[in-house]
Specification:
With 312 residues, the chain is α/β, with parallel strands linked by helices. The protein has helices spanning 20-23, 28-41, 63-71, 88-101, 107-119, 124-131, 135-147, 150-157, 163-169, 174-187, 191-202, 208-216, 218-235, 246-269, 272-275, 279-299, and strands at 8-12, 16-17, 48-51, 57-61, 76-83. The protein folds into three domains: 8-147, Conserved hypothetical protein from pyrococcus furiosus pfu- 392566-001, ParB domain; 150-235, no CATH class; 246-299, no CATH class. A hairpin with a 5-residue loop joins strand 3 (48-51) and strand 4.
């Protein structure tokens, strides 16, 4: 017989202290979606609140829900209330445990939570065991928040820069990150543009003048880079007009089939929240595949390549 272990309680929203680390992974679109879901269905994912011996309450999971409830003017909410010790290590371990049970909050937030845990004295081996992650995964996440300029991190916490964009900014040299992030936010650049500009800046062949423009006027630099790509592509021979030996085409077909099967299997085994990280690349791949399908259908359409579909 299972005993009753329900810990859901009704608490005053105003008494729950928000979690600044989790807030860094929450953008305005997520909050808006959460508000719409609450108005239609109520709170789907119950927030988890840690209660200390001193009577204070700290949020351990559900920052998006808490923010949405506050903005909707809700006074009371149901929360899973658990007792936590007052030390930082206990809070950090509880947050990591909850993180391992839910959708990923994003690499930046994960790195911040890991840094909190390590700073609080939680051994890395224990962290790896709790999350079921490798040592390299933990090191990569910690490296991300270590590389990111503190001012850029504050921009994320303040809601000015989306966490996923900050992950791209972190690839820039530290001294360039804040200058670029401010300019990108002022220009209202989406993540895809930020990713492209960061890649261009880090390109070994990028001229110093272009690097300076990327930092000072990223939108103009984006147009300049696009013009340069078009110029380069115009000078290249058209691969569609090049003679392709039959054996190379056959090898390309076999290679494409093998890679497609491998990618299909990998995506099927991947949790949806991890696949989201590859969204832009997958959309570009879909576009390339559709173009290839169109070419194949045109080649094998009636009257092409000696194919006779008349039925005679």
């Amino acid at each position: 017989m299972v005993k009753n272990i329900n810990k859901v309680k009704e608490v005053d929203v105003v008494t729950v202290a928000g979690n600044k680390t989790l807030a860094a992974a929450v953008d305005r679109r997520a909050v808006q979606r959460c508000k719409e879901a609450i108005e239609k269905f109520g709170v789907v994912h119950t927030p988890v609140v840690g209660a200390t011996n001193g009577g204070s309450r700290m949020l351990l999971s559900g920052q998006c829900e808490l923010t949405a409830l506050r903005e909707l003017g809700v006074k009371k909410m149901e929360a899973i209330e658990v007792e936590v010790a007052g030390d930082a290590g206990s809070k950090a371990k509880m947050s990591l445990l909850l993180m391992s049970l839910q959708d990923k909050p994003g690499a930046l937030c994960e790195g911040s939570l890991l840094r909190e845990a390590v700073s609080a004295g939680v051994p890395r081996l224990e962290i790896q065991s709790m999350l079921g992650k490798s040592a390299s995964w933990v090191s990569n996440r910690l490296s991300l928040v270590t590389r990111l300029d503190v001012n850029v991190y504050e921009m994320v916490k303040g809601g000015m820069l989306e966490p996923r964009s900050a992950q791209d900014v972190a690839r820039l040299p530290c001294e360039a990150q804040f200058v670029f992030a401010e300019a990108a936010v002022r220009a209202g650049l989406p993540k895809s543009a930020i990713e492209l500009l960061v890649a261009g800046y880090n390109d070994a062949g990028c001229p110093d003048a272009v690097k300076a423009q990327i930092l000072s006027d990223p939108r103009s630099a984006l147009g300049r880079m696009a013009d340069r790509r078009r110029s380069v592509n115009a000078d290249r021979p058209d691969p569609r007009k090049a003679d392709q030996p039959q054996c190379s085409i056959g090898e390309a077909i076999r290679s494409a089939r093998l890679k497609t099967v491998a990618l299909h299997n990998a995506l099927r085994a991947m949790p949806p929240y991890e696949a989201v990280e590859y969204g832009n690349a997958l959309v570009e791949l879909e576009s390339s595949l559709m173009a290839l399908i169109t070419t194949i259908r045109r080649i094998f359409s009636p009257g092409k390549m000696g194919v006779d579909n008349s039925g005679e």
